[in-house]
Every structure is written in structure tokens, then in C-alpha cells.
Write a structure and sequence with these properties.
The structure is a single chain. The protein contains three helices and ten strands. Strands 1-2-3-4-5-8-9-10 form an eight-stranded antiparallel barrel. The protein has a single domain, classed as Lipocalin (Beta Barrel). Helix content is 20%, strand content 49%. By secondary structure, it is α+β, with helices and mostly antiparallel strands.
Length: 168
């Protein structure tokens, strides 16, 4: 009986996921080693997508200064949704990263030398490697306003931004 109930629940979840359109822009905010990290997926009807992360990190330097760096990383790619399996395949050549702001001890820094050095860090091959892997995620819930995925190490809940997209 338990097996039949579980099978029914799994089938209904897949039907619900397929009945909703994943097309649109989805955003979540997480801490995950940063002071805040805004993660956004945009899925278009033609199967293309965009994955972006805006990260805000504060740290104390050896000189006791506090530095806050806000950086934005984006990569375009393609996606498929097969049942409850969402696969995003990034196009490595489209990866971009930039420093959107630097604050030192509460004051915004416009020093081009500092920005240049930090820009080199956010564009490093080590950091870029985090964005170029093919991700297959399990969709747990998909409604007009909410996307919940199992990202392997954690469950992530995204909210649709910019209104509901109609399924064609």
C-alpha cells in the first residue's frame, strides 16, 4: 500500500511539473558562505537560458579594514525539463564576471587599481570553473509563483519575478 501511495504521489508531482511552464525568471537569496547571494535563472521558450549570481562578501583584512565586494557572474546556456529533471548546460564562452561595487570601511571605493585587482580575482579560472558545469537538478515543486529544486546539497526555493509566463 505504501509503495502504491508513493508511486501515485510521484506520478502526480511529474504531471503537475509538466503542466506548469518553467519559462520566466526565477530568483532566490541565500547566504552560503557569502553575506548574501542572489541567484537568478531565466528560462526562455526556445530552450535557452541565463544563470546569474550576484554575491556580496564582507571580510576583515589584515590591516583591520573591512572590505565589502559585490560581484555579478553570468553565463548563458540551454536547458531541458524532462519530467522532474531540469538540466542547464552552460556555454563557457558566454561567462562574464564583474565587480559592481567595493566598499572599504563603509566608504565606496572608486580606486581603479583596487577594482582591477579584484576584477582579476572574480574572473579567475578557479572561480569560473564553478559556473561551467552542466547541472541536473530535481524539480520538487513548480507553480505559477514558486520553483523548488533539489540542488544535490540543498533544497532551493525560487520565486518567479516579472509576472506569470503563459505556457504555449
Amino acid at each position: 500500500m505504501k509503495r502504491a501511495f508513493f508511486l501515485f504521489f510521484a506520478i502526480m508531482a511529474c504531471i503537475t511539473i509538466q503542466a506548469q511552464s518553467i519559462c520566466g525568471t526565477w530568483r532566490t537569496v541565500q547566504a552560503s558562505g557569502y553575506d548574501s547571494m542572489r541567484i537568478t535563472y531565466t528560462f526562455k521558450e526556445d530552450g535557452t537560458g541565463l544563470f546569474s549570481v550576484e554575491a556580496d562578501k564582507k571580510e576583515k583584512l589584515l590591516s583591520a579594514q573591512e572590505i565589502e565586494i559585490v560581484s555579478k557572474h553570468e553565463i548563458k546556456g540551454t536547458y531541458t525539463l524532462d519530467g522532474d529533471q531540469l538540466t542547464f548546460t552552460p556555454n563557457v564562452d558566454t561567462y562574464t564576471a564583474d565587480v559592481t561595487s567595493i566598499t572599504i570601511d563603509g566608504k565606496r571605493s572608486f580606486d581603479p587599481n583596487i577594482k582591477s585587482r579584484i576584477r582579476e580575482l572574480v574572473n579567475s579560472p578557479v572561480l569560473k570553473a564553478h559556473f561551467v558545469n552542466v547541472d541536473t537538478l530535481t524539480v520538487i515543486e513548480l507553480t505559477d509563483t514558486k520553483l523548488v529544486i533539489d540542488a544535490g546539497e540543498e533544497i532551493q526555493e525560487y520565486a518567479r519575478i516579472g509576472g506569470k509566463k503563459k505556457k504555449k
